[in-house]
Write a structure and sequence with these properties.
Elements: E1 8-9, E2 12-13, H1 18-40, H2 44-64, H3 68-93, H4 108-132, H5 138-141, H6 146-157, H7 159-180, H8 191-205, H9 242-247, H10 253-268, H11 281-284, H12 294-302
Antiparallel strand pairs: 1-2
Helix pairs in contact: 1-2, 2-3, 3-7, 6-7
């Protein structure tokens, strides 16, 4: 008796095996659709999501066959860890990266052909064995417990295949690191070459050969996205990285100088008209941590 045969319906229960068969045919459709998506989708991110559909469908099948441990492992380990590894590799290599059709390893296509034919033979033998032999049933398979029976198979009968799978996953992780750090197409420039390039740009277009200006440093802003201001009050165009300009809204010179102009206007109104709440805490000094009141500091100096 499986987990799904105990669900009541219309005052009774399903016949034994009915819900298991229904679950199998529904999940089989989703699993096959996901497998086809893994193969035929051109974008790797879609293929990875299709693989997630396959793994979740298998997990539901394990639950219907009264294998709670395999159900949990399928969700936690494969869907939650291995699939995330695939997505991590996709992010490292790049979503828009196209596969190269150039054969860089000698005999690579022959080896792939042989491996593909071997995989097809294994699938045919597995399906033939499942169709021609009589299943032992869940009661006999879980006679000593689902976890205990699975541990006996993994660490005794299939221990070599288990260790080979672990080696395959380690190889995939190493391959991901290799793909993420490709060979340089151009040699890395040293300090001398970069200095010569700056001088050539200065001679050709008049671009200043020195370092770029730093970002703005103000009392109210310490973000690297804050641009520096030139002596005439305009924004220095090279003080903020072009990458930051595409992702963050860069404040203008008027926005940066507006709080200061308000404070100056409040002070210009006279001592009797100054409202302490209108002056920002950064300018009051004694209300800001790390800043001291100038009058108190002067008194400390006299002491």
């Amino acid at each position: 008796m499986t987990l799904l045969t105990l669900i009541p319906l219309e005052g009774g229960i399903f016949p034994p095996g009915l819900l298991t068969s229904i679950t199998f045919w529904i999940c089989a459709v989703f699993a096959i659709a996901g497998a086809l998506g893994v193969v035929f989708f051109q974008k790797p991110i879609y293929s990875a999501l299709s693989l997630a559909l396959v793994m979740v469908s298998l997990a539901v099948l394990y639950a219907s066959l009264n294998a709670p441990f395999l159900f949990a492992v399928q969700i936690i380990v494969y869907t939650g860890a291995v699939l995330m590894l695939f997505l991590f590799v996709v992010m490292l290599v790049g979503v828009d990266t196209h596969d190269s059709v150039t054969e860089t390893l000698k005999g690579h296509r022959i080896a792939v052909t042989v491996a593909g034919l071997g995989t097809i033979a294994l699938l045919v033998l597995a399906v033939g064995n499942a169709v021609t032999t009589e299943p032992v049933g869940l009661e006999e398979a879980n006679a000593s417990g689902n976890v205990q029976g699975l541990a006996e198979l993994v660490f005794q009968r299939y221990v070599i295949a288990f260790e080979a799978t672990a080696a395959l996953l380690i190889s995939a992780a190493v391959a991901a690191m290799v793909l993420a750090h490709p060979t340089r197409l151009k040699p890395k420039l040293d300090q001398t070459a970069m200095a010569e390039r700056r001088m050539q740009a200065y001679a050709a277009s008049g671009r200043h050969p020195g370092a770029l200006p730093n970002s703005g440093v103000f009392a109210r802003h310490n973000s690297i996205a804050t641009p520096a201001l030139l002596p005439d009050g305009t924004v220095a165009p090279d003080s903020v990285s072009a990458i930051i300009e595409e992702r963050v809204s860069i404040p203008s010179a008027e926005e940066l100088s507006a709080p200061h102009a308000e404070a100056v206007a409040a002070i210009a109104g006279g001592p009797g008209e100054i409202d302490a709440d209108q002056i920002p805490a950064v300018e009051r000094g004694h209300d800001h941590p790390g800043l001291s009141n100038p009058a108190e500091k002067e008194g400390d100096d006299h002491e």
